[in-house]
Amino acid sequence: MKKKLLVVDDEPVIQLILKRYFDDDYTVVAQSNGLDALRWLQNGNQVDAIVADYDMPVMNGPAFIEQLRNSLVHRHVPLIMLSGKDETSNKIQCLRQGADDYMVKPFNPEELELRLQIMLRKVSL
Q1: What is the predicted pLDDT for the residue at 125?
Q2: What residue numbers bound the domain in which 74 lies?
Q3: How much is the pTM?
Q4: Taking the CB of residue 125, how many other CB atoms lie within 10 A of it?
């Protein structure tokens, strides 16, 4: 059975790249902002991992992390943040708030896949 990956990004190109790259091993669900993603999760949907953008309309990445980590049901879901910003302060903010990893765009999908595999392996232990 395929694992389920939630992609939260307002850029359709990023959604498409991740859907195509991960389609063989994951069921990929895309949402365009943090608020839509939280609503989708609150409707009873479960995921194995989340990849979310830092800069999004409506609810940005840091606000999404905060809400996700305050959720009783989804607080332990592995979360990788993507961002076009390579600023140490943004990385630290996301990691302090509970992101498991932070990658800078443009990114290599193969590296993202390996990071996801490592996180999911740790969760299954």
Answers
A1: 64
A2: 3-124
A3: 0.96
A4: 4
